[in-house]
Queue: 2 jobs
Job 1
Amino acid sequence: MKYFLIRACSKIGRFFWSWGFLKFILWTITLIVFFYVEEGWRGARALAAAKTKWEAKGESFDYNRLIPPPVPDGQNLGTFPLFQPGLKADTYPKFFASLIRAIRRDIPGGNLPSLGNQEKGELPDMEKIRSELASEYMKAFKDPPPTQDPLAQLDALYPFMADLRAAANRLPFCRFAEDYTSLPVYERELTLEVSQIKIAKILNLHAVLSLNEHQPDIALQDIKTILKLSFGLAHEPYLISGLVACLMNVNACDALNYGLMFHSWNDAQLAELQESLATLDPLTDYQLGLRSEIAGFAPDFDYLKKQKSRIGTFFSTVTNTGKPTSYLRNTVFMLWPDGWFDLSQSRMMNIVLGGIVLVNPKAHRAYPDQADQIEKQSLHFSQRWDIVIQQGIFFEMFAYPILNSLPKFAQAQVRIDEASMACALERYRLAHGVYPDSINDLAPGYLLEVPYDPMNGQSYHYKLRPDGTFLLYSVGWNLKDDGGAAAFTLAHSTDPNDRTQKHGDWVWPTFK
């Protein structure tokens, strides 16, 4: 046995020192070098072809062209102290504590009462709101509120709101002082977006409380402030900014509708609200978001190509998992050929920019049937083993704007259309005592023109109910007239990835 082992080890040793083994090593190295060179050539060729294709269609990959133009400080709401980078307590003592309270829920006094859900028929519970506001005041200031007035309590919790409303009323434009180019997009903090969401919710609550206290003039300024901030955020060259703007628009429309339910607005106020709503264009914002995804992330592909050790961090950040990448995955990333980055970029460029045609802002249209077809094709694309190996994580990141964002922008557009028509219907009722028999009766007296449903290009559905209220709705994502059955009522799927807004009609909430 001992003799056998010695002979075996001797033969193995001679093999590793033989000319045959050396040839094997040389051939292996040659094949590896050839593989990396070939994949580099293939990726560079695919990327060049994709850029040529889209530039011929008028697209630009210059991120600087997407950055909103500067606005003079004397006309810019974005210069308000709350929105300045590096806000510190010693710089803006009046704003800092209440801003932190506004953004973080774990700070005493940082929780906002619920305003219900209008789409589900849930109106704000005013008694509960009063109780919760008093409780938040106690947490923040360690003393009972000096007044039972919920508006006064809210103003004490967030004292910057009065100044913010005044600034929004005085300054015609909104452009935030963002640093667009010094950091990779995926390393940029979302402080601005997070703060805007909470500020919009505070303004929304303030508007509802003001309407409940018969102060529609204050509520009007709250809503117009939300819409102006939303307008500024929607023009940021980031898809996430556009999505946040859509959410803020929903907040504003909810407050507006609360006033409509109780007939709190006069004709002049309704006309002002319509004028503010007319500045919003979610369909155009969607296209800006897609272009920003491609132009903004293009330098990051080159950066990660040179810094492959950071791909794991990139993956965790973009997919928002918060989990560190495993050693094995980091090792795999380090072995990626440079050409795979170019190949990933070219394929994702084709997918994302292909979504530009899913809306036509000039025609006031979105095309959900085409979007669903692209989604099916993209999911099939993502299941091919060769593509998953080469750029699986990039597909997860870049496919999201196409597969998930358009319904939110389309629904925001419908919500804005319906809000403007609801204002016009209330103006008609103020003038005639009843709502019109046809939605077309609103133009040209109360609307320049009646908008068409962007989902199918046909008229919005409208009819009077026996109780004197009206039913106004879009056919929604499924392009099917469900008779005014709201989207959430038809979402019976148990699939966690199922999106409620793809079911049923998109209905403007009305109450008797």
Note: Residues 374 and 496 are 21 Å apart (CA to CA).
Job 2
Amino acid sequence: MNYLKAVAITAALMALAGCQRAAEDTSADEAVIRASAPSWADAYNAGDADKMAAMYWEDAVLQPPGAPAATGRTAIRTFLAGDSAGAKAAGLTLNILEASAVDVSGDLAYEAGSFTVTDASGATVDTGKFIGVFEKRDGKWLYIRDTWNSDNAPAPATEPGA
């Protein structure tokens, strides 16, 4: 009788083991996600709004600090064109080496990391963090949600009429 129990338990364990998903190798996808933020920063510094916008799905949402959300590639392009032009005119450079955290799960992934902003002399004038959510469609990873914020406290509110 003990022999039959052992065979039944072994068979059940083998069946359960067969039901578990094999560990998925996501290293190639992670590399694509990890390279996205530095590529985005290069396009931002160059003022290449078309290249930046091409990194977002048509139904993506950009949630920049201190501004309303931009929904859709056209609105995202418009926002980023103005924002990057303003930074360039001010002599500012966005610096992102790569995302410090990346995770891929099926057709969704995220990146998170930090950035610095330097002025024309190379002095750091701002630091902050970002998080981007990607979706894979037709074998291509693009942003579906993107946001960032500064580590600096917001400017104090001014009183009306002041």
Note: Residues 25 and 104 are 10 Å apart (CA to CA).
